[in-house]
Structures are given as structure tokens and as C-alpha cells.
């Protein structure tokens, strides 16, 4: 099931975040057709994504499925293939930033990503 355009219009584009401790960059590109590319360190993966609002429309869940993985090392140094892996994150856009969190309470988040 595809996301509605109004659910993703503020996500579409390219976002970058640099990990403070290592200086390693993560770049995420979200396209309006539901495809995505993630560059994590020297690893590049592509796949698809779907965004859904929660019932209160206070936050969105992003589900990504990895289709390709070039095998390069990610920011953690891991080269393991992620092909076929499905990831879920809670996404929040605030001002110019994008936060991707493991839970809706925002206790474990990456970001803020900045639009490029």
C-alpha cells in the first residue's frame, strides 16, 4: 500500500546527518514514488518505503524494505547484507530537521537530519 502524497510531501528530498562521535555521515533520499536510497558511511542501499500516520495524527511510522545493498561498510563498520530487511522508524519533522526514532516517545532517535 503506497503512502498518500500529503503524508510524505515534507519528507521527499535528501536529508543528511553526521554522527557526532565519529563524523560519519548518513544520507537518506526519499522519492515521491515510494523509493529510497540510504548512504550510511560507505554502504549504499536502495529500497521502498511507506509512511502511515498514527490515529491521533501526531506522528508517522515509516516502514522501509531494503532491495539492494552494495556491501560497503556502514558507519558502524558492518558489511553484512541487509537485502530483504524491513525497518520501522517513527519520523518527526520539526523546523528544518528530520528525526528518525525507534519509538513514538522519541527516546532513541537519529538526527536531526538536515535537508540538502
Describe this structure in words.
3% of the residues lie in helices and 52% in strands. It has 1 helix and 8 strands. It is mostly beta strands and 116 residues long. Strands 1-2-3-4-5-6-7-8 form an 8-stranded antiparallel barrel. A hairpin with a 6-residue loop joins strand 4 (43-53) and strand 5 (60-69).
Structure at a glance:
The protein is mostly beta strands and 116 residues long. The protein contains one helix and eight strands. It starts with a helix and ends with a strand.
C-alpha termini separation: 28 Å
Number of strands: 8
Strand order of the largest sheet: 1-2-3-4-5-6-7-8
The geometry reads as globular
- Structural class designation: mainly beta
Evaluate the radius of gyration: 14 Å
Major sheet size, sense and barrel closure: 8 strands, antiparallel, barrel
Oligomeric state of shown chains? single chain
* Low-pLDDT regions: none
- Amount of beta strand: over 45%
List the helices and strands and how they pair.
Elements: H1 5-8, E1 13-18, E2 25-30, E3 35-40, E4 43-53, E5 60-69, E6 86-94, E7 97-101, E8 109-115
Antiparallel strand pairs: 1-2, 1-8, 2-3, 3-4, 4-5, 5-6, 6-7, 7-8
What attributes characterize this protein structure?
single chain, 116 residues, mainly beta, 8-stranded antiparallel β-barrel, 1 helix
Amino acid at each position: 500500500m503506497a503512502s498518500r502524497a500529503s503524508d510524505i510531501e515534507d519528507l521527499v528530498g535528501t536529508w543528511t546527518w553526521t554522527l557526532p562521535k565519529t563524523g560519519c555521515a548518513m544520507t537518506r533520499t526519499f522519492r515521491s514514488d515510494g523509493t529510497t536510497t540510504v548512504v550510511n558511511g560507505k554502504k549504499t542501499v536502495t529500497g521502498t518505503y511507506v509512511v502511515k500516520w498514527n490515529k491521533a495524527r501526531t506522528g508517522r511510522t515509516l516502514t522501509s524494505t531494503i532491495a539492494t545493498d552494495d556491501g560497503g561498510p556502514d558507519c558502524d563498520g558492518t558489511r553484512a547484507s541487509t537485502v530483504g530487511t524491513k525497518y520501522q522508524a517513527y519520523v518527526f519533522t520539526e523546523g528544518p530537521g528530520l528525526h528518525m526514532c525507534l519509538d513514538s516517545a522519541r527516546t532513541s532517535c537519529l538526527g536531526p537530519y538536515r535537508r540538502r
